[in-house]
Amino acid sequence: MTTPVLLLPGWHNSGPDHWQSWWEDTHGFVRVQQHDWDRPLRGDWMMQLEEAVIQQAHCVLVAHSLACVLVAAWAAHSKNTHRIRGALLVAPADVERTDMQQCLHSWSPIERKRLPFESIVAASRNDPFCSFMRASSLAHAWGSRFVDCGMRAHINAEANVGEWPEGFALLQELLNKEVTHGH
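Structure (tokenized):
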């Protein structure tokens, strides 16, 4: 039995050339839709994630950017975290930065509780939206394995990562771990 994968795009959604869109088209993963991609409210996004998760017996989350912060916030409040077999958290956004406060005011502070499921944080050394040290610190707080992706900017379409096979390999690790060990 295959484990469903829920794709969680960040702010402004993931466009057609983003690896999340490739994965959705190629592998049939499910994108969690948000009411407002351009003016995101944390509580609203958390409710949308909750609705998507309760439709699954179990699943793996694949979050990008702002959605990494979403997963941490959701996990700290949901009674359905047992349904999550693992999470791949890619290029977390630092919403606590001064320049992000005005447009993303409902997202601070970032939840720093240990996630109750297996997780991997994949970060770039030159991400304009989160320093490498901050990403490492978040991974530690969330109890996540930290993966250094080198100089890949925000690990999105603009970074020319294409289908991002390195990320897909990380997802396979989470999916295979779930099959062999359970959670």
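The chain has one domain: 5-181. The chain has a mean pLDDT of 95.
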